[in-house]
Amino acid sequence: QVQLVESGGGLVQAGESLRLSCAASGSIFSIKAMGWYRQAPGKQRELVATIIRVGSTNDADSVKGRFTISRDNAKNTVYLQMNSLKPEDTAVYYCNAEGTYYSRSYARLPFDLWGQGTQVTVSS
After folding, report:
1. How far apart are CA 122 and CA 19, in angstroms?
2. What is d(CA 82, CA 80) in angstroms, rounded to the nearest whole number?
3. How far is residue 50 CA from its own chain's centroid?
């Protein structure tokens, strides 16, 4: 079983920064990619940023220049450094991880999991 645990959300004022963390644990064989998504009330979940194992990243246009995604492969952890936060960044942020894990029979199986979500609120 693989679990994702997120942390780092909170309430900040516009222009301030937060750093989100998401750690994967369990019978992981490898993680291909990790990413961050967000969902505001009444809106669709949207991609924020993704990163693959070797470090290539993909950021949404709305966060380019402000957010930076990174990962620590040894810790199976992905981070999202959020600078110059804006009220429109307010949302629940979800971590995602895609990879392979060991099943009960030790077979390698794919997984694509979501964290529990962490609230980010930016006040004006």
Report:
1. 13
2. 6
3. 8
